[in-house]
Design a protein that fits this description.
heterodimer; A: about 140 residues; 3 domains; 4 helices; about 0% strand; B: about 350 residues; 8-stranded mixed β-sheet; two-stranded antiparallel ribbon; 13 helices; 10 strands
């Protein structure tokens, strides 16, 4: 038990030296990589990779889209484009509803501002109160 | 025999550590738990009102609307109980609203900053004003949310915006050397139209890769090593899990908005140069008169400080402040020191201006 503790009473950690070395190495690696990604060479390399991927995958994507569209048509099922068109129309309907909501708010506000409305909102006279003791 | 027992102990400890590590990395934790009410929706956008915890007499009369980035979930503002900006502000008596942009679908690929700032934001703000029964309000914009709020503040300067808080705001794109993203999206290397023709919207995973690749070793290696080294510390594990849940929950960016971000801002710096046209209107930053607080994260590698400083010289606001904080892009608001430095500073600034 005694050999597990260092002189200062802290538990001896055999991995501490390794961790320190690891952290020093990691810090250096992190700094180097952070600088590397800022270079024009990195920007060019990632741009080229992305461009190659898009060019290479484009024919397959087109074939997939065509096949899927034909299959859906034969099955009398709506396509992706149909759903997109429907969703766009729904968003437009929502906007119209929101416009109506705004107009209603305006009308409510202007009605509330009218003196007659303010009078109507006043509490009812004492005569209208429920008589005491009424069941 | 004794050596075997020690080896068994070591293997058992390692197995336990691996199990905890694997759980932490793969499980999602409950986040965004401050009670809120959905008060408005339009397409994928939602406006939430946080349920006040103080009586009306003790609350600030001017409501605060939070607008976060388009390509991340806004619940980083309400990460977990005890570590939530939202919870903090509600407890300080703010009538708090959050505009959540949601996740754009293929049908939203043409949405642009024009739509977000002139269709969605005015409608959400109208609703907020109607609910709060006020004419004036405050806005807090973070990251791309800061671009949206700035554009709105310039285009609708007479709409009752009293206070504007910008957090790590990417507004100035003139320093091409200091902004790594500017190099990556340079037209010599990055064909934005080809990308959008293939993908429609910019996928969340690609945006996430872009953000992480700025500091690849930190994000792909050291982040996990930090967790490994602290597996016995439940507080660190809980914080790590919450942040990891947020970081891995990516949202695509609408194609139209992404194109504007690349072409109009990163490549041509049109906002700061006063040349950005949003639905036929020029965004003139000098029209902004609201009280302005700009918060800059000194170690921000996503929005370097050089992107957020110039705005102060462009606006007409008489009351303006630049606040530098040590920390990173997200850390200043969701890190362990946020509740000691950033949140109280924002509250101290906003409180007297919300009377």
């Amino acid at each position: 038990m005694a050999d597990k503790h260092a002189a200062n009473g802290q538990e001896f950690d055999p991995m501490a030296a390794y961790r320190e070395m690891r952290d020093t190495y990691m810090d250096a690696w992190a700094k180097t990589m952070a600088e590397a990604v800022k270079t024009e060479v990195y920007a060019k390399a990632t741009g080229t990779m992305l461009d190659t991927y898009l060019s290479a995958s484009s024919p397959f994507r087109e074939i997939m889209e065509k096949t899927m569209l034909q299959t859906l048509q034969q099955l009398s099922m709506p396509s992706r484009a149909d759903f997109i068109s429907l969703a766009e129309r729904l968003a437009n309907v929502e906007m119209k509803l929101d416009d109506m909501d705004a107009k209603l708010d305006q009308i409510e506000k202007s009605v509330a501002k009218r003196p007659s409305a303010a009078r109507r909102r006043k509490p009812a006279p004492a005569a209208a109160k429920e008589p005491e003791g009424a069941s | 025999m004794a050596e075997t027992a020690v080896a068994e102990d070591q293997f058992s400890a390692l197995a336990e550590k691996l199990s905890t590590f694997s759980k932490a990395v793969t499980t999602k934790v409950p986040i965004a738990q401050t009670p809120k009410q959905l008060v408005w929706t339009l397409n994928k956008a939602k406006l939430y009102r946080y349920i006040p915890v103080l009586p009306k007499a003790k609350r600030h009369p001017v409501p605060l609307l939070m607008v976060f980035a388009l390509m991340n979930r806004p619940y980083v503002l309400d990460l977990r109980p005890g570590h939530s900006f939202v919870e903090f502000m509600v407890s300080q008596g703010y009538d708090l609203y959050l505009l959540d942009w949601g996740s754009p679908g293929p049908e939203d690929k043409n949405l642009k900053f024009d739509d977000y700032t002139l269709e969605y934001m005015p409608r959400a703000i109208r609703k907020m004003k109607a609910i709060a029964e006020v004419e004036e309000f405050s806005m807090l914009g973070w990251c791309i949310g800061a671009i949206l709020t700035t554009v709105y503040a310039a285009l609708r300067a007479d709409d009752g915006l009293r206070n504007l808080i910008l957090l790590t705001a990417p507004l100035d794109f003139s320093n091409k050397e200091g902004i790594t993203f500017s190099k990556w999206v340079d037209e010599r290397y990055f064909d934005v139209d080809k990308v959008l023709a293939a993908m429609g919207n910019m996928p969340g995973e690609m945006i996430d890769y872009g953000a992480r690749a700025l500091k690849p070793v930190d994000n792909y290696v050291l982040n996990y090593l930090k967790l490994w080294d602290n597996l016995k510390n439940p507080q660190v594990v809980a914080a790590w899990k919450a942040m990891n849940t947020w970081v891995t929950d990516n949202v695509p960016l609408a194609g139209g908005a992404f194109r504007q971000l690349v072409v109009d801002l990163y490549r041509n710096d049109r906002l700061m140069r006063g040349e950005w046209i949003i639905r036929g209107e020029r965004v003139d930053l000098s029209r902004i008169r609201a009280n302005l607080l700009t918060v800059i994260a000194a170690e921000d590698h996503i929005t370097p400080p050089c992107q957020s400083e110039k705005i102060l010289s462009k606006v007409s606001s008489k009351d303006k402040e630049l606040f530098h904080i040590a920390g990173g892009h997200i850390g200043i608001m969701a890190g362990s020191a946020a509740h000691k430095i950033t949140w109280p500073h924002i509250e101290r600034w906003l409180g007297p201006r919300s009377k």
